[in-house]
Amino acid sequence: MVIDLEKTLDQEDKEIKTNPNRRKFLSIATSVTSGVGILFAAIPFISSFQPNKKAKALGVAIKIDVSKLETGSILKVIWRGQPIWVLRRSEAMLKTLQNTNPKLTDPESEMSVQPNFAQNEFRSLKPEFFIVEGICTHLGCAPIEKLTLPSTDMGPGWEGGFYCPCHGSKFDLSGRVFSGFPAPANLRVPPHRYQDENTIIIGESEEVVNV
Prior knowledge:
The protein has 211 residues and is an alpha+beta fold.
């Protein structure tokens, strides 16, 4: 069967011209179809502006249970896409921090980032627990913990801390940087508070807390 397309189109065109109702209906139908098409095309574009579940979770405070964290050990978690370390310091570790080390760049943490309550030699709310971002303040590399003593590869007089393998910056057990290395500031301390004796909330901060 062969269809004369030109003849068929001419006939439909004549019907449209002689039937204004049909012409109006086709115009409305075409507009509606175009509108629906634009709407569906825009849905992915509009959706791209909506935060997904992962993005929403990045800004949410997280709870950490430290009841099973052993002395001298580190618990590592992720908050807002950043590595957070919780170090449970021993009495021996704390003693090394009580005397100001003249080799530190910013011993009083005056040029560094931390909550107001953490601007002390321990850089923490409770001396036993040190909460810090595991990111070097030089170029954002990941430092490694050097807690075992003695440590021959860290040089004489090393009392424990953190070491950035990228460019050699060294930090003490409070995350304070030693002079003569590229890192310009101490490791950052994130906002945090204690919900109870064994639960730390990262992402929320209180200036006055009884612990």
